[in-house]
Task: inverse folding
């Protein structure tokens, strides 16, 4: 058995600060020490259970550690739009000689136990990014391409939370927080509104491809799937580097810091998502949004777009007083222009109208088909129509609520 010397790492030297690898180094130097052995086994099992790691736990934990990007290669790949310098690449490839031996270290060859060879945790790690990394590592037969595997991973998914999560929130402590239980909605789940969906997809694909794209305002009737469409984008284009950051209107004051943070993640594309956005006439947070979209001294990062949904076309509440002769402001037109100038700064406005009855019933038909149910009898059709008259009118949301009612109470 070839024992990897972890002290030879240069670029990946932070691995020596990790508690698991500290125990591994100590035990490799003294394989007869039962206490060191048991401490190593215990911590690897704990990591396997908390992180959902399986198989060869030394290999799996090493891959996980590298996926978290605690090295300068991951950082520079992210900050330099997927590229690193030739000297750094050379140093990283040298580290991969030791890394290759570490990844192929079979625990039972030096630990008198097979429990770490094929471990099955209570719950598996469900990260698609991490699963793809493990698959690539399993396909390797030499160390020559190992550096490229990790760099490709950092370029495609990022590292740490950027690779682990599709969507984030801003916690006001000036950093991103991953949303663990993000909505699994996909574009295929969205029924109807094909023209609107096509416009949104085209604009988002331009962002992902690095082409010019517009900030988007999705405006219209409630329950028509505006928010679901934006969330579906994060799921659909995750593998192409798209991430979603949802903020509230009261966090718009933090936009300069948010933009600064996202600018550093230049190999990823971000949609800043403002859901159900509107402002009362006394709220001034919209001024930060206007400045971020267009007009501020600092340019918006090229890897960031702002998508907002709203039931109000002009976003800022406007009253008849603003337009009437009784308005005591001398330059009344300036006041009116101020209320509409925010929505005008979104280059793309997509309108969602409430569905007519046939469109409403079509949504229900398609939703039921996903459960292998055909809405082909008049009684069920009548129930669907009755439902929308006694609930919030016709919309995609109302259709989904009827389907939930049907599946949960009518069809038993």
Result:
């Amino acid at each position: 058995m070839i024992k990897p010397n972890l002290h030879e790492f240069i670029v990946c030297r932070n691995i020596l600060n990790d508690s698991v690898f500290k125990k591994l180094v100590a035990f490799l130097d003294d394989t007869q020490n039962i206490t060191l052995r048991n401490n190593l086994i215990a911590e690897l099992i704990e990591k396997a259970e908390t992180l959902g790691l399986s198989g060869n736990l030394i290999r799996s934990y090493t891959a996980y550690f590298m996926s978290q990007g605690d090295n300068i290669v991951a950082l520079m790949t992210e900050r330099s739009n997927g590229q690193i310098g030739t000297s750094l690449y050379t140093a990283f490839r040298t580290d991969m000689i030791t890394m290759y031996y570490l990844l192929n270290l079979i625990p039972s060859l030096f630990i008198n136990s097979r429990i770490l060879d094929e471990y099955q945790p209570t719950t598996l790690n469900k990260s698609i990014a991490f699963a793809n990394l493990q698959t690539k590592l399993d396909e390797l037969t030499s160390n020559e391409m190992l550096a490229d595997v990790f760099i490709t991973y950092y370029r495609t998914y990022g590292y740490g939370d950027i690779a682990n999560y599709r969507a984030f929130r801003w916690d006001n402590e000036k950093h991103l927080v991953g949303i663990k239980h993000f909505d699994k909605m996909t574009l295929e789940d969205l029924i109807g509104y094909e023209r609107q969906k096509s416009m949104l997809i085209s604009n988002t694909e331009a962002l992902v491809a690095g082409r010019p794209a517009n900030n988007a305002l999705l405006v219209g009737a409630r329950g028509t799937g505006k928010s679901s469409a934006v969330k579906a984008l994060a799921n659909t284009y995750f593998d192409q580097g798209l991430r979603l950051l949802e903020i509230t209107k009261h966090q718009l004051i933090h936009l300069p810091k948010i933009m600064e943070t996202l600018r550093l993640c230049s190999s990823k594309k971000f949609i800043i998502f403002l859901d159900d956005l509107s402002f009362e006439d006394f709220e001034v947070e919209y001024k930060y949004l206007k400045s971020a979209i267009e007009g501020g001294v600092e340019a918006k990062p090229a890897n960031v777009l702002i998508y907002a949904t709203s039931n109000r076309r002009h976003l800022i509440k406007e009253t008849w007083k603003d337009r009437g002769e009784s308005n005591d402001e001398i330059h009344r037109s300036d006041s009116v222009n101020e209320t509409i100038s925010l929505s005008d700064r979104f280059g793309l406005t997509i309108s969602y109208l409430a569905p007519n009855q046939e469109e409403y019933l079509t949504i229900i038909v398609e939703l039921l088909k996903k459960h292998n149910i055909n809405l082909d009898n008049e009684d069920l059709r009548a129930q669907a129509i009755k439902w929308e008259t006694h609930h919030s009118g016709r919309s995609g949301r109302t259709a989904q609520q009827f389907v939930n009612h049907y599946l949960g109470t009518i069809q038993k």
